[in-house]
Structures are given as C-alpha cells and as structure tokens.
Amino acid sequence: MCGRYFLAADGETIARRFALRAVPEVAPRYNVAPGQRAWIIRREGEEVVATPMTWGFLPHWAKPDFRHRPINARAETIAQKPIFRDAWRRARRCLVPASGFYEWEQTLAGKMPWAIAAADGELLAMAGIWDEWRDAEAKSHSSFAILTRPAEPPVDRLHERMPVLMPLHHQALWLSGPPAAAETLLALPNEVPLRMWRVSRRVNDAHHDEASLIEPMSASTGAPD
C-alpha cells in the first residue's frame, strides 16, 4: 500500500522531470498524509500540467454524505471497482510525483518506519487516478488515489503491497493512452530499482514535516547514522 510519502523537490525539478510548461509553486514536503492537498501530474487538453488535489478519492457521482474516500486503488481491479470505474473509463489517470514513500516493519519493539526511493535518486512517478466532485454551489473538489500492486523486492520484506511506479518511457501512455493500453502497463513487473533505509519514528505523526524525517537511522539504536 502507500499511506505516506515525501516530495523533497522544488517546482523547477518537477517541471523538468515531467516536461511541464509551467513551473508549479511546490514547497518540499517530507510527510504527505491522506486527507492533505498534494501535487499530481495529469493531462489537460494537449498539455501536461501539475495540479494540487486532495489525497482521498471522491467520485464525481458521490452524494454529499459520501464518507468512503480511499487513498489507494488496487491495480488488479481498478477497471471493475465501482468507485473507480467511471473515472477509469474517462481516462482520469495521473502521476503522483514523490522523492520516496514510507513503509513500516512490524518488530517486537513496535512498527519501525522505512523510507523507500529510486536507487538512482530520481523522482518517482506513482500511478494514480483522480476525479472531480462538485457541491451544491458547483464548487469543484478534486481528489486522487494512488494505485498499488503486489510488492516486489525490496518492499516485499515490509508489506505485501507497494505503489505502481511508472518508468519514464511509460508515462506518456499512462497519461494519454486509451484505458485498454493503460491497463496493460499495470500487469508489468516493476521496472524502477529501489533502495530503502530506516528512518525516525517521528514520521508516524503526520504533524511532523521536516527534512530530518528522511535521514537514515541506525537499525540497532534508532539513532541517526
């Protein structure tokens, strides 16, 4: 699954990475949590744009009292799952830029957080799906969920699921291709080599959001290396 991630990059870095014409006003985030606003990359007409949305999917057809807002969507069932099906047919696919994501290891001492990032240090592009809901005053509320897949090494030692990571050569097809073509990408094995390291338990509290959260910690003492 993906329940927390970090984006330690500025707008110019994101614009270069995703070939954006406009540079988004991005501030580094080290503990992005569900329910918060975060940046996603999507198609808008003929352009690729960065847009802030709420993490927690709200379908356009939902009633005002709709409470189930999933943060993740299983890649294996997204085309059939009722809550995502219409957005999938509308090709409302996106990429969620991240410097890395967090996962937790269950130990005798409690849950220990790990940071996971691209082995080459490049930004990750997590596959996502988005939708737009309008309230009674026609005010727009845009939201997204991150797609997950069965975990592969090294993440599988921590959890059975991981985000779907789109390599650079698949990103245009993911954003612009027809649903059938995009669905084929979800069945491919992960192509993005990953590395991971222990981090502070302070990341467990979403109120903490500072660069020290991603500093490596000693596995034996829990102190910074």
In short:
This protein has 225 residues and is mainly beta.
Description:
This protein is mainly β and 225 residues long. It has a single domain, classed as hypothetical protein yedk fold, CATH 3.90.1680. It contains four helices and twelve strands. The protein has helices at residues 11-17, 82-89, 171-176, 179-186; strands at residues 5-7, 29-32, 37-44, 47-55, 72-74, 93-98, 100-107, 110-118, 124-134, 140-150, 161-163, 194-198. The strands form two sheets. Strands 3, 4, 5, 6, 9, 10 and 11 form a seven-stranded mixed beta sheet that branches. Strands 2-1-7-8-12 form a five-stranded antiparallel beta sheet, with no helix packed on it. The longest helix is centred in the middle third of the chain and has 8 residues, at 82-89. The chain is globular and about 50 Å long. It starts with a strand and ends in a 27-residue tail after the last strand.
Total number of distinct structural domains: 1
CATH topology value: hypothetical protein yedk fold
Question: Which percent bin holds the helix content?
Answer: 10-25%
Order of helices and strands: EHEEEEHEEEEEEHHE
Largest sheet: 7 strands, mixed
CATH class: Alpha Beta
Instruction: Give start-end ranges of low-pLDDT stretches.
Output: 220-225
- The CATH superfamily label reads SOS response associated peptidase-like
User: What is the distance, rounded to the nearest whole angstrom, between the alpha carbons of the first and last residues?
Assistant: 27 Å
User: Looking at the structure, what is the overall shape?
Assistant: globular
What CATH architecture do you see?
Alpha-Beta Complex
Strand content range: 35-45%
Structural class by secondary-structure content: mainly beta
User: Averaging pLDDT over every residue, what do you get?
Assistant: 93
Number of E-type strands: 12
